[in-house]
Amino acid sequence: MRYAVAILFVTALAACGGAGNNANIGAHSEDDLHYEQLIEACHDAEKLIPHASDWNAVLEEVTYQNDGREEMYALASEYSKALPPEKSEVTAEEFLAELKEERQAREAEPNMSPAELDVELRKTDAWAERFSKLIRFDSLAVLAPREGWSRERDMAVAKLLSAMCARPRLLVQAGSTEQAEEELVTYLVVLGKLDRNSRLWSRSLVNSDIARVLVALSQGWLQPLAGSEKVHAALDTLYEVGNLGRKRAWLREFKYLCAFYLQTPKSELFEYMGDSRRNTWEGLTRSLAEFRYDLELAGSFDLHAPDLLDSDDVEQALRIADSYYHGVKVLLSDLVMSEWRLQAAWLGYSLCLLKSTKPLVKGSKAVAALTKKYPGTRLVWSDDKLQVGADNEAPAAEDGHYSEFIPTITIDLH
Fold this sequence. Notes:
mainly alpha, 3-stranded antiparallel beta sheet, globular
């Protein structure tokens, strides 16, 4: 289940007209052997899940009536083009510097004068008006790769969503609370119309945006809106009940990989592996192990995927990972922790709402009931504050990048 492959796979299919010729390929090298084993694993996937490589069928699942994806694509593209041009390539140092500048800019917002806030808001006024019209559609299936897809399209959508998420924060600081509430509700409604579970990248983007809003409502500049019935109603539609969505995103990502490997010409696949993984042999070795692992998972769980919020499923998936190279366990752990961080954001927001009606007390029935509702979370209490975060003491955290407890939301108990 790899984001990079999913992102690139439609581009590869377009380049080869949607089909590759993989017949009569001999094993002339170790690379060829790994390639043949990868193709064999894809055929095994189709025996387990018929038509696993039919990505057009997957797209039909996320194609809806009254779908405004083209309108959103157009708006996002226009917005992206209106921004200052970005460098085609950036070093790691430059990327980190950009992140630091963005953080400093946000931290400076509280010190903006009314005139400065007005100037900042005017930059996106026209975009916000057009963005609000998207709620007339039943769906906005812009995140599933399809004909005409590109990485630039995905990035344009992400930039538009980021800009629209920032406006309510600025409006609150400018004292325009009613308008901030209206625009935040619109933003949340749009999030609810996106094809969140069309692939893991889609899920990651939407879940990150939901978590960002929950954190801002709990301890950021959106706190004045935390008690809004309209905001709460819009958020309530975004909370998932059951495991179907999580499993669907996982399974679709698996199908993307199967289609990518089977339908991409061998020479292009080798080129991709070499460019992204230093050398073709290493890329093929890793991809083969990861795909075989995903295939074994698909045969081990109902709906062909583990539920990342179910502790038994996660522990079983981790045990299966022990038979593969350590990287597959790291990737699984990171996916699990991303789901748990969202649960921590929901829990932190719910505890903040509870605190507005009664004091938060460690061990109370009310706190225990909320904690039970949001799996994968952990509370750390002290005399004056309560920290809410993903459970870094669970086995899934040990093999990923989240062994240290990092609070998602911190609540002042006084």
